[in-house]
Write a structure and sequence with these properties.
five-stranded antiparallel beta sheet; single chain; Rossmann fold; alpha/beta; 2 domains; Hypothetical Protein Yjia, Chain: A,domain 2; globular
Length: about 350
């Protein structure tokens, strides 16, 4: 019997890691392995999962692929990782793959057509996690009918709406859409978002609504879609191109901050940066002197969240580092200096 694999996609900050944490916490004894691919040099999502305190959430079952695009490293990183998981004395009963928020899911699903993988693993389903308030705010606004018509008329059309294209490609590939953070919308706003998403879905795609990614594993794990068999029929902006171009229009960098006595000061600096620069995502950890716990900082859009998650380990470097992600052209130097509390001019 083939081992099922679930691919969790969705834009930056949509709640993919929260959903996976919920699945791990409610696995009911099922052996899950999680493969994580992030965009940026700081592996925050794996660290957040390791700091969750969930029984059975072990270091060896949370695998982080090298920085970069999971599909551009299929031969060098993804396939060897899958092989190691499958060859374990006790292989996982289910594999969950969290893609970068900037990744196109279709090329990854196609990797499961490789002979070494398809004989032993099937894609149980592609789950797209959607940030409902971000959609309502117009972050991904576009006319899907017009976009598809333009793409059909000219496959070489220049992609000048990278956020919208990623959003649409992730939805078009999904077997299940998780409309997350619905507590941030009223009934009317939720109706508008639901209607907008429906325009971009295949008829067979189901939609569920969640808060903080709290999705029952019986819904998320067991879709039985065998998506690798139908992936060539799922539409994408990039069907005429080779490879995964989800990262082409985006950049990331790490801001090293040093010890932070007042985490509130970083929040104030971060809110100022978010107001002045088109930053898509910030996430990382702070070293607060005198505190035994590590401090997490995250932002998506204009929303900022911070909290202490776990004690620093005895031999762990206590460092304050934030990874910043935005579209090409953002002023990385000015943003780094602002987060460090230095004047930029």
């Amino acid at each position: 019997m083939k081992i099922p694999a679930t691919i969790v996609t969705g834009f930056l900050g949509a709640g993919k890691t929260s959903l996976i944490r919920h699945l791990l916490a409610n696995a009911g004894g099922r052996r899950l392995a999680v493969v994580i691919n992030e965009f940026g040099d700081l592996g925050v999502d794996r660290e957040l999962l390791l700091g969750c305190g969930i029984e059975g959430c072990d270091d060896g079952d949370l695998i982080e692929l090298p920085n970069g695009c999971i599909c551009c490293t299929v031969a060098d990183a993804f396939l060897p990782t899958m092989q190691r998981l499958l060859d374990r004395e006790q292989p996982p009963e289910h594999i969950v793959i969290e893609t970068s928020g900037l990744a196109l899911p279709k090329p990854l699903v196609k990797a499961f057509q490789w002979p070494d993988v398809t004989a032993r693993v099937t894609v149980d389903g592609v789950i797209a996690v959607i940030d409902a308030p971000a959609v309502a705010a117009g972050r991904f606004a576009a006319d899907p009918v017009a976009v598809q018509a333009g793409q059909a008329a000219d496959p070489a059309v220049i992609h000048d709406q990278p956020l919208q294209e990623l959003f649409e490609d992730q939805l078009a590939c999904a077997d299940l859409v998780v409309l997350n953070k619905i507590d941030g919308l009223d009934e009317r706003g939720l109706g508008v978002v639901s209607a907008e998403i429906a325009l971009r879905l295949r008829p067979e795609t189901k939609v569920v609504m969640t808060v903080r990614g709290a999705l029952d594993p019986r819904i998320a794990l067991g879709i039985d879609a065998a998506a690798e068999a139908s992936i060539d029929r799922r539409w994408s902006h990039h069907d005429a191109e080779e490879g995964d171009h989800g990262h082409d229009e985006f950049v990331s960098f790490v801001a090293d901050l040093g010890p932070i006595a007042d985490p509130g000061s970083i929040e104030r600096r971060l809110r100022s940066v978010l107001a002045m620069h088109d930053v898509l995502r910030v996430k990382g950890f702070l070293n607060v002197p005198g505190k035994a716990m590590r401090h997490v900082v995250q932002s998506v859009g204009g929303r900022v969240e911070r909290y202490f998650d776990r004690p620093w380990h005895e031999h762990e470097e206590r460092a304050s580092r934030l990874v910043v992600i935005g579209q090409k052209g953002i002023d990385m130097s000015a943003i780094r200096l602002a987060l460090q509390g230095e004047r930029t001019g």
